[in-house]
Amino acid sequence: MDVTEEQLELLRSAIVQKQPFCSGALPLSPENFILFYGKDDVAHRIDLSQASDDALKLLSETCDAATFGLNGQDVLDESYRKAGKLDISHFAFNFDVYHSGLINTIREHLLEGTPATRPIRAELYKLNVYGKDSFFRSHKDTPRGSTMFGTLVIVFPTRHEGGALVLRHDEKEWTFDSAEVVSDEPKPSIAYITFYSDVEHEVLPVESGYRVTITYNLHFEKANGSPPRSLPKPIPHALDNEARFMDVLKTLLDDPTFLSDGGRLGFGLHHQYAISQDPSDRELQRLCASLKGSDAVLKAVCDDLSLCAFLELVYINLNNGQEEEEQEAWAQMFDRCITEDEDDDDPSESGIHWVTERTTYNTFETSFPFYGNEPSIGTAYAEICMLVQIGKLGKRASI
Ligand SMILES: O=C(O)CCC(=O)C(=O)O
Ligand SMILES: [Fe+2]
């Protein structure tokens, strides 16, 4: 036998899904709470650590209605999002996200694997004011460019109730009640939360007061480009999740009953990525440096063990009542591609041993022609998966 179910289970259980966000409170010195804002030549000044309701009302009235991204367009729909916003040309403040240490926190607590060693750019995006009955229904943030991996929200300590942020990912749910977080702090503090772009989130209705937030889009900077400021060096040691997966994989590689003639392991991705339809090999290769969470851990550990880990499109054979001609065209078309049957996770035709199930976070549609009674177009679906090439016993390295 190539590999036993116990061995696959051992590997599976060593993949830890860390929370896809990190949050907390950060005390700041008084000047960091001062905000200047205005849309004409007259700017207002507000101290967000002790703002009166009247001052907050003026800020709120200066805002425009907040839109949201839908199918590449900015849409205004108050049944989906009711909040005020100021664009970055209409406000200024002293708080510096780099010097505050938040960028380092993101690197240490949110990112894993190689991405945790990459420079990060925080792009100031919007100021939002949520007055009474404001909310933002469940959504995912529209990625602004392929380098964007997440969002940072800071919440100022203005008095308010409600307006908690609820996050959902992988059938789990978390609530971040920023009003409670900041009011519990002995010194004036901001609440912050940072999450991956593919995490669904929702702002519950504000019941009273004003919730004032600033959002940043988080991007990876090119590894060889210079970061915008001198950022502290990332911690070079392997993180806990990496150490654990590394241990288990190493043990298996030393085990003569594990893929003694070599083979391929398959892993479903746990996050969604901003990638074009029908991505090229190069695009998939580039994506390897920007993976999130446990996907990044898998890649980093395999790199360390000189195992070739790569992203691949796996075409799914739906087998569901297609015409014979369509099935034949499909078989011909995807002869050279990796294909799997819809519900089949066993070592299949492709010879891949699936450690974790394929997921549908990154699914693509491809059309292909076929000729039945008349010329028709068939549709094939592909999922991006991570495949790891394991060499035979005694010669495990594959890169
Ligand atoms: O205000 C928040 O907590 C989140 C806002 C948000 O989801 C967004 O601006 O996309
Ligand atoms: Fe959002």
Automatic annotation (TrEMBL):
It comes from Grifola frondosa. PROSITE patterns: FE2OG_OXY. InterPro entries: Oxoglu/Fe-dep_dioxygenase_dom, Pro_4_hyd_alph_FE2OG_OXY. This is Fe2OG dioxygenase domain-containing protein. Residues 115-220 form the Fe2OG dioxygenase domain. Belongs to the iron/ascorbate-dependent oxidoreductase family. It comes from the Eukaryota. GO terms for molecular function: metal ion binding; oxidoreductase activity. The keyword Iron applies. The lineage of its organism: Eukaryota, Fungi, Dikarya, Basidiomycota, Agaricomycotina. Coiled coil: none annotated. Keywords: Iron, Metal-binding, Oxidoreductase.
